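User: We ran a pulldown and think these components assemble together. Before we commit to crystallization trials, I'd like a predicted model of the whole complex to look at. Sequences follow.
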Amino acid sequence: MTSFRSAANLGEIAHDALRRYSKQPALWVDGRMYTYAELEDLAWSIAAHALAGAGARRVAVLAARNEVAYGSILGAVLAGATYVPLNPRFSSARILDILQQSAADLLVCDKRCATMLDSISASLPAGLSVVVIESGNSGWLAGSSAVRTVPRCTRDDIAYIMFTSGTTGRPKGVPVSYGNALSFLANFSDRVPASSEARFLQLLDLSFDPSLQDLFGCWSAGATLYSAPEGMATMADRFVQEFQITHFTAVASTAALLQAQGRLVPGALSSLRQTIFGGETLPVGLAASWRKAAPGSTVRNHYGPTEATVAITECIWQDAWEPELVGSVPIGEVFDGQQVLLVDASLREVPSGTVGELLVSGTQVTRGYLNNPEATRQSFVLLPGAEGLWYRTGDLVERDPRYGLVYRGRVDQQLKVRGFRVEAQEVESHIRAASGSDLVAVVGWPKNEQGLITGLVAFAVAPNVPEAMILESCRGRMPDYMVPARVLTVEELPVNANGKVDYAALAIACGRMGS
Amino acid sequence: MQDPRETIRQFIWTNHIEGKLPIELKDNTRLRTSGLLDSLATVGLISFLEKEFDVEFSALELTVDNFDSINHIVSLVSKKMK
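Assistant: Here's a predicted model for the assembly, 597 residues in total across the polymer chains.
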């Protein structure tokens, strides 16, 4: 059997699984179940487009949550090509930008998404061919007669290109090699056990890299992937119950939303065995509530930037921590074959027990940004006395003897309020305690003419808690300069395409409000 | 009791359109596939429908199509209320 450690590329893994588990259920999407054999037919019929003629090297995928999206990613992988996931929720301008930057030569899209191309059709790259596939039309089931052989490609070839959210400037492409992806998946499957009886819930957008573990973690084990329909991640508990889901990957905001709606009741998610949170900080109170709702599940906090392939550290939540730990769940220990270093602004290692910027290196760490040597130079560095290429995460981390690595906020989210250094994270954990809500966010506002922050504004999803009460409680807990000027209790927090809290939108909201 | 159709229309109108978008809300106006209702708005709508009409949707009913227009929602809700 091909393993993540021995395979040359992801295509071998996929090919192996599709053959081995042929009669078993592989994918539930859009109200229908597909077996591994059906998924194989679909994937190869799409791979045939990529393999035709001179062969496509980069396959962009633009589809809603249907079999076309999943089949296209598998098809690209089987064809040994690079997949570039687009998201129907992206603007046409962003889609065009990604198609141009990635120099995609094939775009596979479903019929509904094809209309998104109308407004940009004149600007599409000249070498791009477009294949439109109708979702729900099983014409492909006849199967293509083409030879089903995965072409030779190596661990250095690029498996996929993901783009950063681009909240500050143009989205940056991160090419992730087969070697990077296979290293991550080997670490993931070593840690997160799955059998062919497992049922994975797939909530995340395919343009968000933790979806990699959903798809390939699931299928390499012969398990079944259940795809929640577009925009229904917020109703995740219903899917867990309906399908007796065992494996669950989500951002913490999804869990916080369930909590806010009172749906995270003890035992509500009793079928879960493995929960993986990633992509944003996991509040301690939320991890504890999750364990009570899912008493049969291990709760894992995964940390890692896209540049280091999905996740590179893990902390397994321990119930005994609930009374003693405040703020967010630690990020724990680094994965096998990867290294971490905590450094100061001049890239020198900080003394143990102090906060430093986290640098990562190893087989999961990518080589730099797509066509962007300037950004690559800034973030991917060589260190005197340390081997290999190091990626600067921009995250502040501290090593704790008991918990391992502990996240302390973003280098660039370190706010200076009237000269005092403030971690937005720390204020957020106080607001959580004061408001009883896990959905909170703190931004620096207003700014004076020099662009310096003179105060903080907190947002909390706690519509029934008076602002004055939260402020009062804050005053007792933290120094004066950390107490927000305002606490706005709101119905909801804006989230970006990946479901994470959208701080940029909150800053804009503050701007509209006036100072 | 008010016509369910009007109750639903009023909820969507006051929460998501009035004062925000210069559009009409017709029975067949696309709500989800047009992006008019995002995921947070949808979860709010679903909670409202469940409370207002004393129904509970199963995971299998939580499709994009079932909530894509007032017509779709009315047909789903009235099926559930029977």
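Chain B touches chain A at residues 32-33, 35, 37-40, 42-44, 46-47, 57-60, 62-64 (CB under 8 Å). That may be worth checking against your pulldown data before setting up trials.

User: Thanks, that helps.
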